[in-house]
């Protein structure tokens, strides 16, 4: 009876988890990860284009990212966008590639990043709870419209709560892993 509602809740909550993971990917933990640059775009002949589409990005060493643009003329534009970003990285180039040395994180910066992770975690939890509220409202409406009984409504709400708890736990687990990653030296 509620199968489609449960399925919708699961899908929407999985999407929320996916968005949350993507947000965390761009928070650097002192390790070189090409995903750090995912949010950076450059002006490529009048088109705003994601950095990963105008060159190759690699991490040849644990604390080094190398960007090799397919068009060397893009190097100044790429450097400018990296400096404008909130990554706190200083690009250097040799005319062919851009190197980004990932500095060691200070204790203070680690704590700042952990706070950002916590804030993102809370936002994801709020999104999950909003999905729960939306589905529960629809279940209540079904009861009000006499499509289901009060017992069915209660069972439906309990099942939605179980699904919600599962995704909240997943967010907590992802958050703890990211915080541990940030705090390791």
Could you describe the 3D structure shown?
The chain is of the alpha+beta class. It has four helices and six strands, in the order αββββαββαα. A four-stranded antiparallel sheet has the order 3-4-6-5, with helices on one face. Strands 1-2 form a two-stranded antiparallel ribbon. The longest helix is centred in the C-terminal third of the chain and has 38 residues, at 107-144. The model has no long low-confidence stretch (mean pLDDT 88).
Total of helices: 4
Shape: elongated
Mean pLDDT: 88
Major sheet description? 4 strands, antiparallel
Percent of residues in helices comes to: 55-70%
Number of DSSP strand runs: 6
* Spatial gap, N to C terminus: 51 Å
The radius of gyration over CA amounts to 22 Å
- Taking pLDDT < 50 over at least 5 consecutive residues as the criterion, the unreliable ranges are none
Question: Could you tell me the strand content as a percent range?
Answer: 15-25%
Question: From N to C, what is the helix and strand string?
Answer: HEEEEHEEHH
**Which structural class do the helices and strands define?**
alpha+beta
How are the strands ordered across the major sheet?
Answer: 3-4-6-5
List the helices and strands and how they pair.
Layout: H1 3-25, E1 41-44, E2 47-50, E3 55-61, E4 64-69, H2 75-84, E5 91-93, E6 98-101, H3 107-144, H4 150-183
Antiparallel strand pairs: 1-2, 3-4, 4-6, 5-6
Helix pairs in contact: 1-3, 1-4, 3-4
Characteristics:
about 180 residues; alpha+beta; 6 strands; elongated
Question: Short description, anyone?
Answer:
By secondary structure, the chain is of the alpha+beta class. 57% of the residues lie in helices and 15% in strands.
């Amino acid at each position: 009876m509620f199968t489609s509602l449960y399925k919708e809740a699961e899908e929407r909550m999985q999407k929320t988890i996916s968005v949350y993971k993507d947000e965390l990917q761009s928070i650097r933990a002192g390790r070189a990860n090409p995903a750090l640059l995912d949010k950076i775009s450059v002006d490529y002949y009048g088109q705003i284009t994601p950095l990963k589409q105008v060159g190759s990005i690699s991490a040849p060493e644990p604390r080094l990212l190398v960007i090799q643009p397919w068009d060397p003329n893009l190097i100044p534009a790429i450097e400018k966008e990296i400096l404008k970003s909130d990554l706190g990285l200083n690009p250097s180039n040799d005319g062919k590639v851009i190197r980004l040395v990932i500095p060691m994180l200070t204790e203070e910066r680690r704590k700042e990043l952990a706070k950002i992770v916590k804030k993102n975690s809370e936002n994801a939890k709020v999104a999950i709870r909003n999905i729960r509220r939306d589905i529960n409202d629809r279940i209540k409406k079904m009861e009000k419209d006499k499509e289901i009984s009060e017992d069915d409504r209660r069972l439906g709400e309990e099942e939605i709560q179980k699904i919600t708890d599962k995704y909240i736990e997943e967010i907590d687990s992802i958050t703890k892993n990211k915080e541990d990653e940030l705090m390791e030296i």
